[in-house]
Amino acid sequence: MLKKIKHTAIFSLLFTFVWFVSCKKTEENLTPTSTTPDVRDSVYIIAQSLYFWNTNLPSAANFKATSYPTADSVMRVVRTYSPYVNGKYQDRWSFAIDKTTWENYVNGSSQDAGIEYSFASSTDLRVKLVYSASPAGLLGIKRGWKVLKINGVDGTVANIDQLNTELNKTSQTIVFAKPDGTQQTSVLTPAAYTADYVMNPKVFTVNGNNVGYFAFDSFLGESINGQTAQSTLNVLDQVFAQFKTNNVTDLVLDLRYNGGGYGLVANYLANLIAPTSAIGKVFAKTEHNSLYSRYNSTNYFQKNANGLNLSRVVIIVNKGTASASEELINGLKAVMNVKLIGNTTHGKPVGYYAMPTMNYYAFPVAFRNVNANGTGDFYEGFTPDRVQTDDVTHDLGDANEACLSTALNYFSTGILQGGTQSARVSAEIENYNTKISKDRLKITVNNLPKN
């Protein structure tokens, strides 16, 4: 997993990167630049070296990292030195985070109720997502249930501020309306659990052919015996082995909430999906700034015993589909027929290394990825082939859920017609869903390269 290295001083720019990448732990290399180490200085020194647009950054003396309140605020200012294109900075993601929070995040370890919400309309609040091992999951709560009241407050957009106040309290008493017309009142309190990243795998029969489906929530996961995200790779192997046993010939991959994770997991999943003709071809090329061009690398499609050898795949997407999810889409587009259903993806073609410093990890954008065709600057996201609303009135994997229904119809008819009405409906409540939804990190993180 991530290397845990303690710093007792602010190191010179060169040593900082050599230390992290090469692990050459010799006292002679330590060159303190300050007798009072400060993590804000440290993360900026890392950015000066590793940042993809590092030549745009001012000197440390002119930047004055300690004039900003936190390490993360330093990284947010670093973003403003990236190119300004189409009314926004290309870097909208560089960040810093304390080690404990990050390591819990990558392992899927959470301490909350394990439930997320979304409005289907101005008067219709729904359960958007539930993790099975969470407090909400253990109470049997499912996506698609209507939320009537939270601590006595009606679930409508008119009450958005009060709803957020109640959701920030330690405990919520929630009245749900279930699909069968009954109600359930549940008290939710935070507890520790591990998120399930592979959700609701199913097989549907369409015109005599078997179509596999699963929702994939993150490309992260717990490391096992030092192998990054091995827990997630193991579950993917299990799902695809079952698909193979069931003679699955088409696949619907649901990435609508997947903000990314490890690039190696994206490559692994691509191997399970892609046709055998892709083996040996480029999945993604990783490109760094000129200082670290020697670390540029290429990842290829490889044979996997559980691979399905598909010629086409449908991927459900929306603005929550980001980073490693988009890397997967980009890589597959170069070797097979990829259809996207939903709404435009986030647009993040760049990634990071987790750079440990003191009690933090710094994540300056360090590289970009391109596919076999050299395509990679998708800062505006991928446009869907069929616009479709995120149908939170049905559970993930329900054949009646709008996005999945559209995908299954495509496999039945071969036709995927465009649409616009769903996008307009979604836009009406987008602002409210942004307020009530938990924002996720948008990440593609690679293991540190070796010299």
TrEMBL record:
Residues 181-390 form the Tail specific protease domain. Transmembrane segments: none annotated. Coiled coil: none annotated. InterPro entries: ClpP/crotonase-like_dom_sf, PDZ_sf, Tail-specific_protease. CDD domains: Peptidase_S41_CPP_like (cd07561). Pfam families: Peptidase_S41. This is S41 family peptidase. It comes from Arcicella rigui.
